[in-house]
Design brief:
Blueprint: H1 2-12, H2 14-18, H3 28-39, H4 54-70, H5 78-109, H6 114-122, H7 126-135, E1 138-139, H8 141-166, H9 171-195, H10 199-211, H11 215-234, H12 238-251, H13 256-281, H14 292-314, H15 320-327, H16 332-343, H17 349-374, E2 385-386
Antiparallel strand pairs: 1-2
Helix pairs in contact: 1-13, 3-13, 4-7, 4-12, 4-13, 5-6, 5-8, 5-14, 6-8, 6-14, 7-8, 7-17, 8-16, 9-11, 9-12, 11-12, 14-15, 14-17, 15-17, 16-17
Amino acid sequence: MFALLTIVMLAGLAGPLLGYGRRGLISVVVGELIGGAILGRTGFGVIDPTTQPLPAFSAIGFAMLMFSAGTHVDIRSPQIREGFVRGLSALAVVGVAAVPLGIAVDHVVGLSHPALLAVLIAGSSAAVAFPILEERGLAGPNISFLIAWIATADSVTVILMPLTLSGSGNIGLALGGDAALIAAAIVVIVAASRLRAIEPTEMLRKWSLSRGWAWQARLSMILVLGLSAIAERTGASTLVAGFLAGIVLTRLREPGRLAVQLSGIANGFFVPVFFVLLGAQLNLRALVADPSRIVLAFALAAAAVIAHVIAATLRGSEHRVATGLAASAQLGLPAAAASLGLGSHLLSASEAAALVAAGCLTLIPATIGSLLLARPPRGGTAAATPRAAAPVGVAAPTGTDEPDEE
Protein backbone atom coordinates (compact mmCIF):
# COMPACT_ATOMS: atom_id res chain seq x y z
CA MET A 1 0.00 0.00 0.00
CA PHE A 2 2.71 2.49 0.95
CA ALA A 3 4.67 1.87 -2.25
CA LEU A 4 1.54 2.51 -4.34
CA LEU A 5 0.70 5.69 -2.43
CA THR A 6 4.29 6.86 -2.88
CA ILE A 7 3.96 6.41 -6.64
CA VAL A 8 0.64 8.29 -6.65
CA MET A 9 2.14 11.21 -4.72
CA LEU A 10 5.18 11.27 -7.00
CA ALA A 11 2.83 11.48 -9.99
CA GLY A 12 1.09 14.37 -8.26
CA LEU A 13 4.33 16.35 -8.24
CA ALA A 14 3.83 16.77 -12.00
CA GLY A 15 1.25 19.43 -11.15
CA PRO A 16 3.54 21.93 -9.38
CA LEU A 17 6.48 21.11 -11.68
CA LEU A 18 4.48 21.72 -14.89
CA GLY A 19 2.79 24.76 -13.36
CA TYR A 20 6.11 26.25 -12.24
CA GLY A 21 6.90 29.77 -13.32
CA ARG A 22 5.51 33.27 -13.02
CA ARG A 23 2.79 32.77 -15.64
CA GLY A 24 1.95 29.19 -14.80
CA LEU A 25 0.20 28.52 -18.10
CA ILE A 26 -0.39 24.87 -17.16
CA SER A 27 -2.65 24.56 -14.15
CA VAL A 28 -1.53 22.35 -11.27
CA VAL A 29 -4.74 20.36 -11.74
CA VAL A 30 -3.90 19.63 -15.38
CA GLY A 31 -0.38 18.56 -14.41
CA GLU A 32 -1.72 16.14 -11.80
CA LEU A 33 -4.14 14.69 -14.36
CA ILE A 34 -1.30 14.27 -16.85
CA GLY A 35 0.83 12.52 -14.22
CA GLY A 36 -2.02 10.12 -13.46
CA ALA A 37 -2.73 9.47 -17.14
CA ILE A 38 0.89 8.64 -17.91
CA LEU A 39 1.10 6.09 -15.09
CA GLY A 40 -2.51 4.89 -15.43
CA ARG A 41 -4.65 3.18 -18.05
CA THR A 42 -3.72 5.54 -20.88
CA GLY A 43 0.00 5.11 -20.27
CA PHE A 44 2.10 2.50 -18.51
CA GLY A 45 -0.57 0.99 -16.25
CA VAL A 46 1.56 1.36 -13.13
CA ILE A 47 -1.36 2.83 -11.14
CA ASP A 48 -4.57 0.83 -10.94
CA PRO A 49 -7.15 3.26 -9.46
CA THR A 50 -9.38 0.36 -8.35
CA THR A 51 -6.73 -1.10 -6.02
CA GLN A 52 -7.66 -0.73 -2.36
CA PRO A 53 -7.45 1.63 -0.53
CA LEU A 54 -7.13 4.08 -3.45
CA PRO A 55 -10.90 4.45 -4.08
CA ALA A 56 -11.41 5.54 -0.47
CA PHE A 57 -8.60 8.10 -0.68
CA SER A 58 -10.03 9.40 -3.95
CA ALA A 59 -13.50 9.83 -2.44
CA ILE A 60 -12.09 11.71 0.56
CA GLY A 61 -9.99 13.83 -1.79
CA PHE A 62 -13.07 14.90 -3.75
CA ALA A 63 -14.92 15.76 -0.53
CA MET A 64 -11.93 17.78 0.70
CA LEU A 65 -11.68 19.57 -2.64
CA MET A 66 -15.31 20.66 -2.47
CA PHE A 67 -14.85 21.55 1.20
CA SER A 68 -12.03 23.90 0.26
CA ALA A 69 -14.21 25.43 -2.47
CA GLY A 70 -17.06 25.94 0.00
CA THR A 71 -14.83 27.95 2.33
CA HIS A 72 -14.92 30.75 -0.25
CA VAL A 73 -18.69 31.11 0.05
CA ASP A 74 -19.91 33.39 2.83
CA ILE A 75 -23.70 33.02 2.81
CA ARG A 76 -24.04 36.35 4.64
CA SER A 77 -22.40 38.21 1.78
CA PRO A 78 -24.80 40.11 -0.54
CA GLN A 79 -22.24 39.52 -3.28
CA ILE A 80 -22.52 35.75 -2.88
CA ARG A 81 -26.33 35.81 -2.75
CA GLU A 82 -26.47 37.87 -5.91
CA GLY A 83 -23.99 35.49 -7.49
CA PHE A 84 -26.25 32.49 -6.85
CA VAL A 85 -29.24 34.26 -8.41
CA ARG A 86 -27.22 35.08 -11.51
CA GLY A 87 -25.69 31.61 -11.49
CA LEU A 88 -29.11 29.94 -11.60
CA SER A 89 -30.18 32.12 -14.50
CA ALA A 90 -26.94 31.36 -16.36
CA LEU A 91 -27.51 27.64 -15.86
CA ALA A 92 -31.02 28.01 -17.28
CA VAL A 93 -29.60 29.66 -20.40
CA VAL A 94 -26.98 26.93 -20.78
CA GLY A 95 -29.70 24.29 -20.42
CA VAL A 96 -31.75 25.84 -23.20
CA ALA A 97 -28.71 26.09 -25.48
CA ALA A 98 -27.52 22.57 -24.63
CA VAL A 99 -30.61 20.80 -25.93
CA PRO A 100 -30.29 21.72 -29.63
CA LEU A 101 -26.51 21.43 -29.44
CA GLY A 102 -26.79 17.94 -27.94
CA ILE A 103 -29.23 16.87 -30.63
CA ALA A 104 -26.99 18.29 -33.34
CA VAL A 105 -23.85 16.57 -32.05
CA ASP A 106 -25.72 13.28 -31.65
CA HIS A 107 -27.04 13.55 -35.22
CA VAL A 108 -23.55 14.15 -36.60
CA VAL A 109 -21.77 11.34 -34.73
CA GLY A 110 -24.66 8.85 -34.36
CA LEU A 111 -24.29 8.17 -30.65
CA SER A 112 -28.06 7.76 -30.08
CA HIS A 113 -27.88 9.47 -26.68
CA PRO A 114 -28.91 13.11 -27.29
CA ALA A 115 -30.16 13.63 -23.73
CA LEU A 116 -26.84 12.47 -22.30
CA LEU A 117 -24.93 14.83 -24.59
CA ALA A 118 -27.21 17.74 -23.65
CA VAL A 119 -26.58 17.18 -19.93
CA LEU A 120 -22.82 16.91 -20.48
CA ILE A 121 -22.82 20.12 -22.53
CA ALA A 122 -24.71 21.95 -19.76
CA GLY A 123 -22.46 20.68 -16.99
CA SER A 124 -19.51 22.32 -15.28
CA SER A 125 -16.91 20.62 -13.12
CA ALA A 126 -16.40 22.32 -9.78
CA ALA A 127 -13.66 19.80 -8.96
CA VAL A 128 -11.57 21.09 -11.86
CA ALA A 129 -12.70 24.70 -12.29
CA PHE A 130 -12.42 25.79 -8.65
CA PRO A 131 -8.74 24.85 -8.22
CA ILE A 132 -7.93 26.67 -11.48
CA LEU A 133 -9.69 29.82 -10.24
CA GLU A 134 -8.15 29.54 -6.78
CA GLU A 135 -4.68 29.02 -8.20
CA ARG A 136 -4.99 32.40 -9.96
CA GLY A 137 -6.06 34.03 -6.68
CA LEU A 138 -9.23 35.54 -8.19
CA ALA A 139 -12.01 37.26 -6.26
CA GLY A 140 -14.74 39.82 -6.84
CA PRO A 141 -18.40 39.92 -7.94
CA ASN A 142 -17.78 38.19 -11.26
CA ILE A 143 -15.96 35.31 -9.54
CA SER A 144 -18.81 34.96 -7.01
CA PHE A 145 -21.17 34.62 -9.95
CA LEU A 146 -18.87 32.12 -11.62
CA ILE A 147 -18.47 29.99 -8.49
CA ALA A 148 -22.24 29.93 -7.94
CA TRP A 149 -22.87 29.03 -11.59
CA ILE A 150 -20.37 26.17 -11.62
CA ALA A 151 -21.46 24.74 -8.25
CA THR A 152 -25.15 24.82 -9.24
CA ALA A 153 -24.51 23.30 -12.66
CA ASP A 154 -22.39 20.51 -11.16
CA SER A 155 -25.02 19.71 -8.52
CA VAL A 156 -27.91 19.60 -11.01
CA THR A 157 -26.19 17.67 -13.78
CA VAL A 158 -24.76 15.06 -11.41
CA ILE A 159 -28.38 14.17 -10.55
CA LEU A 160 -29.69 14.26 -14.13
CA MET A 161 -26.87 12.42 -15.90
CA PRO A 162 -27.65 8.86 -14.64
CA LEU A 163 -31.27 9.29 -15.75
CA THR A 164 -30.20 9.97 -19.34
CA LEU A 165 -28.43 6.61 -19.54
CA SER A 166 -30.62 4.30 -17.53
CA GLY A 167 -33.96 5.96 -18.15
CA SER A 168 -34.72 5.36 -14.51
CA GLY A 169 -33.46 6.39 -11.15
CA ASN A 170 -34.75 7.85 -7.97
CA ILE A 171 -34.31 11.58 -8.44
CA GLY A 172 -36.58 12.14 -5.45
CA LEU A 173 -34.17 10.18 -3.24
CA ALA A 174 -31.21 12.26 -4.41
CA LEU A 175 -33.08 15.52 -3.82
CA GLY A 176 -34.17 14.27 -0.41
CA GLY A 177 -30.55 13.51 0.41
CA ASP A 178 -29.50 17.03 -0.57
CA ALA A 179 -32.28 18.41 1.64
CA ALA A 180 -31.02 16.27 4.53
CA LEU A 181 -27.53 17.66 4.02
CA ILE A 182 -28.79 21.23 4.12
CA ALA A 183 -30.78 20.49 7.28
CA ALA A 184 -27.74 18.90 8.91
CA ALA A 185 -25.58 21.90 8.01
CA ILE A 186 -28.11 24.27 9.58
CA VAL A 187 -28.20 22.17 12.75
CA VAL A 188 -24.38 22.27 12.95
CA ILE A 189 -24.31 26.06 12.56
CA VAL A 190 -26.93 26.59 15.27
CA ALA A 191 -25.39 24.07 17.68
CA ALA A 192 -21.82 25.30 17.17
CA SER A 193 -22.87 28.93 17.63
CA ARG A 194 -24.40 28.06 20.99
CA LEU A 195 -21.68 25.72 22.22
CA ARG A 196 -18.74 27.98 21.39
CA ALA A 197 -20.09 30.59 23.85
CA ILE A 198 -19.85 28.30 26.90
CA GLU A 199 -16.73 28.16 29.08
CA PRO A 200 -15.65 24.50 28.52
CA THR A 201 -15.61 25.02 24.76
CA GLU A 202 -13.54 28.18 25.12
CA MET A 203 -11.10 26.36 27.39
CA LEU A 204 -10.73 23.54 24.85
CA ARG A 205 -9.88 26.08 22.16
CA LYS A 206 -7.24 27.72 24.37
CA TRP A 207 -5.70 24.42 25.41
CA SER A 208 -5.62 23.29 21.79
CA LEU A 209 -3.83 26.48 20.87
CA SER A 210 -1.19 26.10 23.59
CA ARG A 211 -0.77 22.31 23.45
CA GLY A 212 -1.03 21.66 19.71
CA TRP A 213 -4.15 19.46 19.75
CA ALA A 214 -5.56 20.82 16.45
CA TRP A 215 -9.00 20.56 18.06
CA GLN A 216 -10.81 22.67 15.45
CA ALA A 217 -9.12 20.86 12.59
CA ARG A 218 -10.37 17.56 13.99
CA LEU A 219 -13.91 18.90 14.29
CA SER A 220 -13.73 20.23 10.73
CA MET A 221 -12.71 16.82 9.40
CA ILE A 222 -15.56 15.20 11.36
CA LEU A 223 -17.93 17.69 9.71
CA VAL A 224 -16.68 16.84 6.20
CA LEU A 225 -16.77 13.09 6.77
CA GLY A 226 -20.12 13.21 8.59
CA LEU A 227 -21.90 15.13 5.84
CA SER A 228 -20.27 12.86 3.23
CA ALA A 229 -21.60 9.84 5.16
CA ILE A 230 -25.11 11.30 4.96
CA ALA A 231 -24.65 11.80 1.21
CA GLU A 232 -23.44 8.21 0.83
CA ARG A 233 -26.42 6.79 2.72
CA THR A 234 -29.09 8.95 1.08
CA GLY A 235 -27.89 8.89 -2.52
CA ALA A 236 -26.98 12.58 -2.47
CA SER A 237 -23.80 13.99 -3.96
CA THR A 238 -20.50 14.20 -2.09
CA LEU A 239 -20.04 17.44 -4.00
CA VAL A 240 -22.92 18.98 -2.04
CA ALA A 241 -21.69 17.49 1.25
CA GLY A 242 -18.17 18.88 0.96
CA PHE A 243 -19.36 22.23 -0.35
CA LEU A 244 -21.81 22.66 2.55
CA ALA A 245 -19.11 21.73 5.08
CA GLY A 246 -16.94 24.56 3.74
CA ILE A 247 -19.84 27.01 3.90
CA VAL A 248 -20.49 26.01 7.52
CA LEU A 249 -16.85 26.63 8.44
CA THR A 250 -16.90 30.07 6.83
CA ARG A 251 -20.22 30.92 8.50
CA LEU A 252 -18.71 30.14 11.91
CA ARG A 253 -15.75 32.47 11.17
CA GLU A 254 -13.01 30.18 12.38
CA PRO A 255 -9.44 31.54 12.75
CA GLY A 256 -6.95 31.77 9.91
CA ARG A 257 -4.61 29.15 11.40
CA LEU A 258 -7.37 26.56 10.84
CA ALA A 259 -7.36 27.42 7.14
CA VAL A 260 -3.63 26.71 7.04
CA GLN A 261 -4.07 23.37 8.80
CA LEU A 262 -6.86 22.28 6.46
CA SER A 263 -4.88 23.40 3.43
CA GLY A 264 -2.06 21.11 4.51
CA ILE A 265 -4.43 18.17 4.90
CA ALA A 266 -6.26 18.80 1.61
CA ASN A 267 -3.69 20.19 -0.82
CA GLY A 268 -0.77 18.30 0.67
CA PHE A 269 -2.29 14.84 0.21
CA PHE A 270 -5.96 14.16 -0.48
CA VAL A 271 -6.64 16.55 -3.38
CA PRO A 272 -3.51 15.59 -5.40
CA VAL A 273 -4.39 11.92 -4.87
CA PHE A 274 -7.89 12.57 -6.22
CA PHE A 275 -6.66 14.21 -9.42
CA VAL A 276 -3.90 11.67 -10.05
CA LEU A 277 -6.34 8.79 -9.65
CA LEU A 278 -8.87 10.55 -11.87
CA GLY A 279 -6.20 10.84 -14.55
CA ALA A 280 -5.25 7.19 -14.03
CA GLN A 281 -8.85 6.13 -14.74
CA LEU A 282 -8.73 7.58 -18.25
CA ASN A 283 -8.12 5.27 -21.19
CA LEU A 284 -7.72 7.63 -24.12
CA ARG A 285 -6.01 4.98 -26.26
CA ALA A 286 -9.43 3.50 -27.06
CA LEU A 287 -10.06 6.48 -29.34
CA VAL A 288 -7.45 5.20 -31.79
CA ALA A 289 -9.59 2.17 -32.56
CA ASP A 290 -12.51 4.37 -33.74
CA PRO A 291 -11.39 7.68 -35.28
CA SER A 292 -15.01 8.81 -35.69
CA ARG A 293 -15.18 9.11 -31.92
CA ILE A 294 -12.38 11.67 -32.06
CA VAL A 295 -14.91 13.83 -33.91
CA LEU A 296 -17.35 13.22 -31.06
CA ALA A 297 -14.79 14.39 -28.51
CA PHE A 298 -14.01 17.65 -30.30
CA ALA A 299 -17.65 18.34 -31.19
CA LEU A 300 -18.82 17.76 -27.61
CA ALA A 301 -16.08 19.98 -26.16
CA ALA A 302 -16.82 22.74 -28.69
CA ALA A 303 -20.55 22.56 -27.95
CA ALA A 304 -19.91 22.88 -24.21
CA VAL A 305 -17.73 25.96 -24.71
CA ILE A 306 -20.26 27.57 -27.07
CA ALA A 307 -23.17 26.99 -24.68
CA HIS A 308 -21.32 28.51 -21.72
CA VAL A 309 -20.09 31.53 -23.68
CA ILE A 310 -23.67 32.14 -24.89
CA ALA A 311 -24.93 32.02 -21.29
CA ALA A 312 -22.22 34.39 -20.06
CA THR A 313 -23.04 36.78 -22.90
CA LEU A 314 -26.80 36.79 -22.34
CA ARG A 315 -26.36 37.24 -18.61
CA GLY A 316 -24.58 40.48 -19.31
CA SER A 317 -21.32 39.45 -17.64
CA GLU A 318 -18.69 42.18 -17.75
CA HIS A 319 -16.08 39.75 -19.04
CA ARG A 320 -18.30 37.52 -21.11
CA VAL A 321 -15.98 35.33 -23.13
CA ALA A 322 -13.53 34.78 -20.27
CA THR A 323 -16.33 33.90 -17.84
CA GLY A 324 -17.93 31.49 -20.30
CA LEU A 325 -14.61 29.80 -21.02
CA ALA A 326 -13.85 29.39 -17.32
CA ALA A 327 -17.31 27.92 -16.64
CA SER A 328 -16.98 25.32 -19.42
CA ALA A 329 -14.46 23.16 -17.52
CA GLN A 330 -15.58 19.55 -17.28
CA LEU A 331 -14.10 16.19 -16.39
CA GLY A 332 -15.76 14.50 -13.43
CA LEU A 333 -19.20 14.28 -15.05
CA PRO A 334 -17.94 12.89 -18.40
CA ALA A 335 -15.78 10.39 -16.49
CA ALA A 336 -18.80 9.31 -14.41
CA ALA A 337 -20.93 9.02 -17.56
CA ALA A 338 -18.27 6.89 -19.22
CA SER A 339 -18.05 4.60 -16.19
CA LEU A 340 -21.83 4.22 -15.94
CA GLY A 341 -22.21 3.71 -19.69
CA LEU A 342 -19.57 0.98 -19.77
CA GLY A 343 -21.03 -0.73 -16.72
CA SER A 344 -24.53 -0.79 -18.24
CA HIS A 345 -23.17 -1.72 -21.71
CA LEU A 346 -24.87 1.33 -23.22
CA LEU A 347 -21.57 2.82 -24.38
CA SER A 348 -18.64 1.20 -26.15
CA ALA A 349 -15.06 1.66 -24.98
CA SER A 350 -14.37 4.19 -27.75
CA GLU A 351 -17.55 6.15 -26.98
CA ALA A 352 -16.72 6.28 -23.28
CA ALA A 353 -13.17 7.40 -24.10
CA ALA A 354 -14.58 10.14 -26.36
CA LEU A 355 -16.70 11.55 -23.53
CA VAL A 356 -13.67 11.68 -21.23
CA ALA A 357 -11.49 13.17 -23.98
CA ALA A 358 -14.09 15.90 -24.51
CA GLY A 359 -13.88 16.74 -20.82
CA CYS A 360 -10.09 16.92 -21.04
CA LEU A 361 -10.33 19.24 -24.05
CA THR A 362 -12.52 21.71 -22.14
CA LEU A 363 -9.68 22.22 -19.67
CA ILE A 364 -7.79 24.17 -22.34
CA PRO A 365 -10.39 26.95 -22.81
CA ALA A 366 -11.14 26.92 -19.07
CA THR A 367 -7.49 27.61 -18.27
CA ILE A 368 -7.39 30.34 -20.92
CA GLY A 369 -10.52 31.86 -19.40
CA SER A 370 -8.96 32.00 -15.96
CA LEU A 371 -5.87 33.70 -17.40
CA LEU A 372 -8.06 36.30 -19.12
CA LEU A 373 -9.96 36.93 -15.90
CA ALA A 374 -6.73 37.52 -14.05
CA ARG A 375 -5.36 39.90 -16.68
CA PRO A 376 -6.41 43.56 -16.51
CA PRO A 377 -7.55 44.95 -19.85
CA ARG A 378 -5.74 47.92 -21.35
CA GLY A 379 -6.92 51.16 -19.83
CA GLY A 380 -9.39 49.38 -17.56
CA THR A 381 -9.77 47.40 -14.38
CA ALA A 382 -8.92 43.77 -13.86
CA ALA A 383 -11.52 41.19 -14.77
CA ALA A 384 -11.25 39.90 -11.24
CA THR A 385 -9.45 41.15 -8.21
CA PRO A 386 -6.54 38.94 -7.07
CA ARG A 387 -6.91 37.91 -3.45
CA ALA A 388 -4.22 38.45 -0.89
CA ALA A 389 -1.90 35.50 -0.74
CA ALA A 390 -3.56 32.57 0.97
CA PRO A 391 -3.22 28.82 0.70
CA VAL A 392 -4.73 27.55 -2.53
CA GLY A 393 -8.21 26.20 -1.99
CA VAL A 394 -8.71 27.72 1.45
CA ALA A 395 -10.45 30.92 2.38
CA ALA A 396 -8.49 33.81 3.76
CA PRO A 397 -8.79 34.36 7.50
CA THR A 398 -12.28 35.54 8.34
CA GLY A 399 -11.68 37.68 11.34
CA THR A 400 -10.93 36.43 14.81
CA ASP A 401 -8.44 37.75 17.29
CA GLU A 402 -6.79 34.40 17.91
CA PRO A 403 -3.13 34.06 16.98
CA ASP A 404 -2.47 32.29 13.71
CA GLU A 405 -0.13 29.72 15.17
CA GLU A 406 -0.88 26.48 16.91
